[in-house]
Write a structure and sequence with these properties.
The protein has about 775 residues and is of the alpha/beta class. The protein is built from 24 helices and 31 strands. A hairpin with a 4-residue loop joins strand 7 (about 230-235) and strand 8. About 55% of the residues are buried. Bound molecules: zinc ion (2 copies).
Length: about 775
């Protein structure tokens, strides 16, 4: 077994009485369909123990008999070296009277046995990779090699229990050789449901631009097309990607143009760590995360001096992943002259979910893809790549999806059982509680798009069905116009269920508390784009005191006027103008600002601001970022989501020290507000005076971090633990600066690790709030 276990044991087992010669053990968690019984068999043989094991509806039940130290060693191994896909969450050990049993047997499963949790899709394990590289083996260069430790799981799963008949492998009957492995407890493919080989399993094929089959080795054909600068559609685990040679600038630009994706960063699949190091700076923990069997895209810092990276990402980072299926290993191995670094970007229509179906790809990618590397195993559950940075030695999620979903979060109690949380809208994500587990959706996207809303509905139905969850309480955002709110209302009406609506930023705070298993009370610093406040206005720069029972809005920021409301979110130049106007920037400074020379319709916009017509205020740090970025860059229109913070972060991370900007508060009121005007005025004066954008960007974010500390000192005198949440904290410069200042002042600071700080992780907080509300009813 060469994969390390990827999931820790959540609970400490009760140890048997010293000297016990026979024990009964119940192991619960992800313990079925993951090679657990063969592992027990090998372990018992190694330690010379007798007894038996079997699957039950509750998990795996076993009895062991032998010398007490061997029994202790067995239990220790259960905790420390379970199979990589297993997650032993509970271990109950009871002493029994010895029976004199000396051999170990696997007993038939008890009736009603069901794997009640499902594993995520994992990268090929080292043993499978070795076998795939062996010319004498029957799976030499076979794209679908897998075993009990690795391979597809969630993406092929239609129903539980996890049996082949319930997966998209149902159409592939095992050949004699594969069936023999499947039945042999000594084989590493014992009960491996997707077990297959070239004789009996799925196959890849290569199609040309017109969708005609091309004879020859499909992998070699794809490598040659990539080497020639072409764009190839590649069917992966949870969706179809577009690939091209990442080191061929013309190919990358062509892909961007065809996909209408001029600026948004592209992820790069690298053959190996050496290739990664040519592109990026790589620390050991980042290398470990890249190599983890979950294989997320990891955000790394570009290597200075490497040319040709600007076309991949306009900011200082690059999203990198290592091959996550045998097919990608072969595609990137260069044996037919293919490149070692491939752009890998979701194949989708603008705003739509990633494509999963061969026919859909052939139809929808006409004019975009020059060739298609596809296969005949259907994708059941769409699952985009996960995206994470490394923060405090662990994942910091931008997107928690493939390799993680649908692995549930283990909770300290079952108080969220039967609760369904609907999340937000632009970065949608739901959460469902069952027993002591919370199941989170894979990446969904923006529900304002009809196809994405369909994806959300399908994913929700699928997870409820898969995990046998019957919602009894529903919870959603306060915002009446979110599609997720409407979905919740419609389900509540249809099923006659209670529906709780909770404030957006409070839910963020609760999400970060639940992420860190904090009981509360806490002090929440919640900064994001927009969310509906309890007073009907738009919030997003919040300082909240409270816990799961309730909260008080202690602090915020001066509202940023948004001329034209949503129009200002799309045209960020309007926010820049509004900030300058609000700050009373003098005319001679305003005239020197590149933005105000480029922004159309200023007279009308200024009239709107003067009269306060159609200018809703948003006390939002996200909008403040947009406006300052527009002023600094001279850019009128918003690009992709997250562009402004990513570019400001890039600017700030050089050698140039930041400017020292003022922070001010007032007027005095119930909510202590950061007054943005002196900061904005100073930023505008610097821009007009030609100060370096790097110094301004850094000074701006340093001022925000300092403001977080000053607000905390003023509003959190009793030093409650501080939780940082909201999409603004995806900005790593700000996250690091705020954490450093707050911790330096002696506060206990918590940020996200199990779910995203963005709206994608919001549902966890909604769930926690509903659980408490139900308890106190
Ligand atoms: Zn394997
Ligand atoms: Zn076979």
């Amino acid at each position: 077994m060469s994969w390390p276990p990827i999931w820790p044991v959540a609970s400490v087992p009760r140890w048997p009485e010293p000297g016990a010669r026979r024990v009964h053990i119940l192991a619960a968690g992800i313990v079925q369909g993951v090679g657990f019984r063969p592992f027990l068999h090998r372990l018992a043989a190694r330690l010379g123990l007798g007894g038996w094991a079997r699957n039950t509806p509750a998990g795996v039940e076993m009895e062991l008999e032998g010398p007490p130290d061997a029994i202790e060693a067995f239990i220790h191994a259960l905790r420390t070296e379970p199979p990589p896909l297993a997650a032993v969450e509970q271990l109950d050990v009871q002493p029994m009277a010895a029976l004199g049993e000396t051999s170990f047997a696997i007993r038939p499963s008890t009736a009603g046995s069901a794997a009640t949790l499902a594993a995520p899709d994992l990268a090929p394990c080292p043993a499978c990779l070795r076998e795939m590289a062996d010319p004498a083996g029957r799976r030499y260069r076979y794209s679908f090699i897998n075993c009990t430790d690795c391979g597809p799981r969630f993406s092929i799963l239609r129903a539980l229990p996890y049996d082949r008949a319930n997966t998209s492998m149902a159409g592939f009957a095992m050949c004699r050789d594969c069936a023999a492995e499947y039945a042999d407890i000594r084989s590493r493919r014992y009960h491996a449901q997707p077990n297959c080989c070239p004789v009996c399993g799925p196959h890849v094929f290569y199609l040309d631009q017109e969708g005609r089959a091309v004879p020859g080795d499909p992998i070699a054909l794809a490598q040659q097309a990539l080497a020639a600068g072409r764009t190839v559609a590649v069917k992966g685990t949870g969706g179809i990607h577009l690939a091209c040679n990442a080191r061929d600038e013309a190919a990358v630009l062509r892909l961007r143009q065809r996909k209408h994706r001029p600026e948004k960063p592209l992820a790069v699949l690298c053959r190996d760590l050496d290739t990664v190091r040519q592109l990026c700076i790589l620390s050991d923990p980042e290398a470990a995360l890249l190599q983890s069997p979950r294989r997320p895209i990891v955000l790394l810092q570009k290597r200075p001096g490497t040319t040709g990276l600007a076309c991949l990402s306009e900011n200082r980072r690059l999203g990198i992943l290592l091959p996550y299926t045998p097919l990608h290993v072969l595609l990137a191995d260069g044996t037919a002259g293919g490149p070692a670094a491939l752009v890998l970007t979701s194949a989708n229509r603008p705003g739509c979910p990633v494509m999963t179906d061969n026919a859909e790809a052939l139809d929808g990618l006409a004019g975009i893809a020059d060739g298609y590397l596809l296969h005949d195993r259907p994708i059941v559950n769409r699952c985009d790549d996960s995206l994470a940075a490394l923060w405090q030695g662990r994942e910091y999620f931008f997107r928690r999806s493939r390799g993680y979903a649908p692995q549930p979060l283990a909770m300290p109690s079952d108080e969220a059982d039967g609760i369904l949380a609907f999340g937000a809208e632009q970065k949608a994500g739901f959460a469902a509680g069952r027993d002591r587990h919370v199941f989170l959706s894979q990446h969904i996207g923006d529900l304002k798009n009809a196809e994405t809303l369909d994806h959300y509905r399908t994913a929700l139905e699928t997870q409820l069905h898969l995990f046998g969850i019957t919602p009894r309480v529903l919870v959603c955002d306060l915002h009446p116009d979110y599609f997720s709110t409407r979905e919740a209302q419609s389900m509540a009406a249809k099923r006659g269920l209670p529906l709780l609506q909770v404030q957006h930023h409070w839910a963020h705070m609760a999400a970060c508390m639940a992420d860190n298993q904090l009981e509360g009370p806490a002090f929440g610093i919640v900064w994001d784009g927009t969310g509906l406040g309890s007073d009907g206005s738009i919030w997003g720069g919040e300082f909240l005191r409270g816990g799961y029972d309730g909260f008080r809005r202690a602090g915020s920021i001066r509202p940023v006027p948004l001329p034209g409301g949503d129009a200002a979110v799309r045209q960020i130049g309007r926010i820049g103008l509004a900030l300058a106007w609000d700050a009373g920037v003098p005319a001679e400074v305003r005239e020197a600002l590149p933005l105000l020379r480029a922004l159309p319709g200023q007279t009308a916009l200024l009239a709107m601001l003067e009269k306060g017509i159609a200018c809703p205020g948003a006390s939002s740090i996200g909008r403040l970022f947009d406006g300052v970025y527009a002023l600094l860059s001279g850019r009128v229109d918003a690009g992709y989501d997250g562009q402004a913070p990513a570019l400001l972060e890039s600017l700030a991370c050089g050698e140039i020290p930041g400017r020292d900007y003022p922070t001010a508060y007032g007027p005095e009121g119930e909510v202590r507000r950061f007054d943005t005007r002196p900061l904005v005025a100073a930023v505008c004066a610097d821009i007009a005076a030609g100060v370096s954008p790097a110094a301004i960007a850094r000074g701006f974010m340093d001022a925000l971090a300092r403001m977080a500390l000053e607000q905390c000192r003023a509003l959190n005198p009793d030093r409650l633990p501080v939780v940082l949440s909201g999409g603004v904290f995806l900005n790593q410069y700000l996250l690091r600066a705020a954490t450093r200042l707050l911790e330096g002042d002696g506060y206990a600071v918590f940020s996200h690790h199990r779910v995203s700080a963005s709206d994608e992780g919001l549902a966890l907080g909604q769930l926690a709030l509903a659980a408490r509300a139900r308890q106190t009813e």
